[in-house]
Amino acid sequence: MKFKKDCIFCRIAAGEIPSDKVYEDERIVAFKDLNPQAPVHVLVVPKAHFATLAEMSGEDAELVKHALQTVPRIAASLGLANGYRLIVNQGEDAGQTVHHLHIHLLGGKPLGEKIV
Ligand code: 5GP
Ligand code: ZN
């Protein structure tokens, strides 16, 4: 598995840095965002290191599929029956600050104005 030793999310996934985990399996982990932007704000993170989707190739797509297919279960476990929003920031223009691929899962209230 790709591991980058100076990457905070690699280290959280490996259990080297503590996090408030809400879900974990062999391939992904989901934990509460340190600076929540909604009542529920969780990051769904592949354990393997990819800075962005652009670093993924053919077989890696399976990991994205697995993460997305697991989101409804994570959302249900967090009580998000009324809906939620997923955001995946990619690169500078999107304001990505942690360069390890992650899906923001936000909910727990009406999320307000949409960009799209
Ligand atoms: P980005 O801006 O890259 O899409 O999102 C990075 C997110 O990671 C931010 O929402 C930030 O609050 C969160 N974050 C950064 N460092 C940590 C950390 O050490 N632990 C947790 N749980 N969240 C973090
Ligand atoms: Zn990483």
Describe this structure in words.
It is a single chain. The protein has 116 residues and is α+β, with helices and mostly antiparallel strands. The chain has a single domain, classed as HIT-like (HIT family, subunit A). The protein has two helices and five strands, in the order αβββαββ. The protein has helices at 8-13, 61-77; strands spanning 21-24, 28-32, 40-46, 84-87, 103-107. Strands 1-2-3-5-4 form a five-stranded antiparallel β-sheet, covered by helices on one side. It is globular, with a radius of gyration of 14 Å. The structure holds guanosine-5'-monophosphate (5GP) and zinc ion.
Question: How would you sum up this structure in a few lines?
Answer:
The protein is an alpha+beta fold. It has a single domain (8-107), classed as 2-Layer Sandwich (HIT family, subunit A).
Order of helices and strands: HEEEHEE
Mean pLDDT: 97
Instruction: Outline the biggest β-sheet.
Output: 5 strands, antiparallel
**Bound small-molecule species:** guanosine-5'-monophosphate, zinc ion
If helices are DSSP runs of H or I spanning 4 or more residues, what is the number of helices?
2
Question: How many strand units?
Answer: 5
- Would you identify the CATH architecture? 2-Layer Sandwich
CATH class: Alpha Beta
Strand order across the biggest sheet? 1-2-3-5-4
* End-to-end Cα distance: 34 Å
Query: Quick one: CATH superfamily?
Result: HIT-like
> Would you identify the regions where 5 or more consecutive residues have pLDDT less than 50?
none
Structural domain tally: 1
Give the overall silhouette: globular
